[in-house]
Amino acid sequence: MHDQNHKLAAISVIKDSYKNVLVHLKSYLIISYAVMLPLFLIQASAPINMDPNGSFSWPLTFSLLGASILLILFAIYLYRLFILSNDQIFKVSINDLMKMILKSFLYSIALGAVLILAYLTLGLLFGLVLSIINSAAGGDPLSGARLANIITYSIMLFMLIVIFRVQPTFISIALGHKTIAMKSAYYYTRDNNKNILLIALSCYLPLIISGLLFALNSEVNDANNLISFLISPLKMLPYALQLSAGSLIYKELVMDVAAQHD
Questions:
Q1: Helix extents (H) in the chain
Q2: Per-residue model confidence (pLDDT) at position 124
Q3: How is 75-136 classified by DSSP, letter by letter?
Q4: Which of 5, 114, 157, 238 could form a Cys-Cys staple with 191, CB 3.0–4.6 A?
Q5: How far apart are CA 76 and CA 176, in angstroms?
Q6: Which residues contact 81 (CB under 8 A, 6 or more apart)?
C-alpha cells in the first residue's frame, strides 16, 4: 500500500452504482424477494407491532434478530452479484454461508459498538464547542433545536463515512476471502472522505421514495403486507446502492492495489 492513496472518481462511482443495479436488475429482484419472503410470511401469519412504549418482548427480539440475519444474507449475495461472475454468485456451501453470516453479524455488532461510542464522544465534543461559540456570541448556550440539529447531522455524516469506509471488511467476508480487518479497510479507503461522502449521499437519494412507501404502508394488515412485499425491492434500493457503491470502491481501492503488488 502506498503512502498516497488513489483518489476515487466520485461521479463515475455514483453512475456505476446505479448502473450496477440496473444491469443486474433481474438477479436483484430475485434476491430481494427471496430474502423478504420469510419476513412477509412471518408478518402475515403472526404480525408483530413495534411499540416504542412497550416492555421487553421475546417475539419482537427474535423478529429483529431474524430480520438482521436476512439483511446480512441480502448483503452477502448482492456483494457477490456485483463482484463475482454469474456462475460464482450462488456457488457457496451451506457451511461456508453460515460462517459468512456469523462473521458478518459479529463484525456488525463490533461496528455498531464503535458507532455508538463515536456518537456519544462526538456528541459531547460538538455540543461543548458549539455551546462555547454560541455563548461567546452572546446567545443562550442551551438554545435548543438548532444546536441539536447541527450536532446530529454532523455526527450522521461522520458515521456515514465510517460505514462506507469499512465495507471492504464485509465484502471480503462475503467473497470468502481472507477477512480484511476494519482498521485495514479504513486504511485502504484513506484520502477519499469527501468523495466517499458524496457517493454515500447519492446512494440514499431514493430514501425519499422509500420513506413515502414506508409511510403509506405503516398500517399492519394483509393487504398492506402484500403491497409491502411486492414493492420491497424499491424499498431496499438505497441499501442496494450502498452495497453497489461499496463493491466499486472495493474493486478500485482494494483489488486493484492488491493486483499491483502481486
A1: 10-23, 25-45, 58-83, 94-136, 144-165, 167-174, 182-188, 193-203, 207-216, 222-230, 232-235, 237-250, 256-261
A2: 77
A3: HHHHHHHHHS-GGGTT---HHHHHHHHHHHHHHHHHHHHHHHHHHHHHHHHHHHHHHHHHHH
A4: 5
A5: 10
A6: 24, 27, 28, 31, 89
Cα–Cα dist 243/245, whole Å: 5
* Long-range contacts from 102-108, C-beta under 8 angstroms, 24+ separation: 103/173, 103/179, 104/72, 104/75, 104/76, 104/170, 104/173, 104/174, 105/68, 105/69, 105/72, 107/169, 107/170, 107/173, 107/182, 108/68, 108/72, 108/170
Taking a C-beta distance cutoff of 8 angstroms, is the pair 225, 151 a contact? no
Q: What span, in angstroms and rounded, lies between the C-alpha atoms of 196 and 155?
A: 15
Length of the chain: 262
Predicted confidence at residue 1, as pLDDT, reads: 47
Side-chain-side CA neighbours of 148 within 13 Å: the count stands at 4
Q: Which three cell numbers stand for residue 215?
A: 409511510
The answer to whether 21 and 234 are in contact (CB under 8 A) is no
Tens place of pLDDT for every residue, the chain, 262 residues? 456 678 899 999 999 999 999 999 999 999 999 998 987 887 776 666 655 565 556 666 777 788 889 999 999 999 999 999 888 999 999 999 999 999 999 999 999 998 898 888 877 777 677 667 666 655 555 455 666 677 778 888 889 999 999 999 999 999 999 999 999 999 999 989 999 999 999 998 887 665 665 555 555 566 777 887 888 898 899 999 999 999 999 999 998 665 555 4
First to last CA, the chain: 12
Asked whether 48 and 63 are in contact (CB, 8 A), the reply is yes
Maximum Cα interatomic distance, the chain, rounded to a whole number of Å: 66
